[in-house]
Amino acid sequence: MTGAETGTAAPVARSDESRRTRLRQLLRGLRARLVVAFLLVAAVSALTTAALTYREARNAILERSQDTAINDLRAQINSLAPDLPVPPGRADLDEFARQLDRSGKARDWDVEADYEGVPGEGSDADVAVPDALRESVEQRHVPAFQRVERDGEPWLLIGMPVTRAHDHAPSKLSVYARLPLRAEEANVEELVNAAQRGALPVLALALVPALFAARGVLRPVRKLRQAAGRLAEGKLDTRLEVKGGDELAELSRTFNDMAAHLEENVAELRRLESNSRRFAADVSHELRTPLAAMSAVTDVLDEDAEAGELDPDTASAVRLISQETGKLARMVEDLMEVSRFDAGAAALHVYDVDVAEAIRKTLQARAWQERVTTDLAADVRARLDPRRLDVVVANLVGNALHHGGEPVAVRLRAPQDGRLEIEVADNGPGIDPEVLPHVFDRFYKADSARARSEGSGLGLAIAMENVRLHGGTLRAANSEEGGAVFTIDLPLRAGEEEA
């Protein structure tokens, strides 16, 4: 496969995968579920209505047919029975049955006549009357009927006791008829087929109100999602329009109340944060002048102590005061630097810098050459703020010397993909996994019992802010060989990106 074919196939594959992802999301979405639920309700309702209609229509058709057949048979019996001799012979019964057959040709029924429970010749096999039906007619002298299925055909069996004409008392004569129900069943089957043919159009029509109903439900949900997205972007004045009094309207009211409370709380937090930042900046600024005077005095006293002009106890006290004054001065400078970052007042002043040479100058300025090993790629130039790069490297190396183990190693790797990488590693015990996520937090101390330390607790936080200002990243991890590793990732053109 050529390179052009590979490049063409990859976007096509990504496009197909994107379409499949969108299709899966659509099928799993609330709209699809609402439409399916609506269609299921419509289908269940239609099927239930069709089943009830089928049952009622079938019963009505069959009952009308059997009532008509019973009335016709009774009329024919009342017309022909008075001519029978008493008692009738089998030949008379057969003739009586044949006359009834001829009179019912339109209904295509088969008739059997019994006298004292004895059927006429040759008719028993035609009708095949069940014992229960025969008992109802001959012993209880009541008309009876029964629908049966024989050889896959539906039939109606009718049993009719014959009464005497002069006193309407039960006689010993009874008539049984078998009537085919093929036409009635065909009508019922046609009714079922019509219902089945109408089911798909009904469901198709139900799809339209289902889509409108889903749209009506999803519109406020979609607006709620969009409003939540704007709220997440920081637009705390976002509100929803409330219409109606249903559950979705109540949800919109709840969202508006939540957004209002959130806006109030965030405004209060911002006010408090602004006040705290202003306080720290003001305090730091006010401390600079007296600290400058104190530093000048301690410098003079340090010179006297070094010259031996002070007694040992006074000289020791002077050295302690000098150390604490220097520590306080560094802390004030760090606080002012952090305040500038918080206020967004920190700015980059970028130049074309030889990165390896800048790192060497940082180590030389602090006399760390003997304690730090370097592996610096040559001819690595980048547009950086050299002062801020100095602060980052100095803070990381100083942290490694104070809290890690010597020797500390600084590595500069050759740029790749327009970015350069600097590593600062030590040979100490490493960073506790529980502490690792907090190493760049301000004033964080791994040992809470340690009330005092040589630093301000802001060095790593300031290093992180300076790296971010360049558009880079700063990561902390533990090396497999032991010790902590801090990795700086910077763009080669930080000044242009910042501009």
UniProtKB/TrEMBL annotation:
The keyword Nucleotidyltransferase does not apply. Its EC number is 2.7.13.3. It is an enzyme of class 2 (transferase). It is found in: Cell membrane. Residues 215-267 form the HAMP domain. GO terms for molecular function: ATP binding. InterPro entries: HAMP_dom, HATPase_C_sf, HATPase_dom, His_kinase_dom, HisK_dim/P_dom, HisK_dim/P_sf, Sig_transdc_His_kin-like_C, TCS_sensor_his_kinase. Keywords: ATP-binding, Kinase, Membrane, Nucleotide-binding, Phosphoprotein, Transferase, Transmembrane, Transmembrane helix, Two-component regulatory system. The keyword Cell membrane does not apply. Residues 282-494 form the Histidine kinase domain. The chain crosses the membrane at residues 32-54. It catalyses: ATP + protein L-histidine = ADP + protein N-phospho-L-histidine. Pfam families: HAMP, HATPase_c, HisKA. PANTHER family: SENSOR HISTIDINE KINASE TRCS, SENSOR HISTIDINE KINASE YKOH. This is histidine kinase. It comes from Streptomyces ochraceiscleroticus.
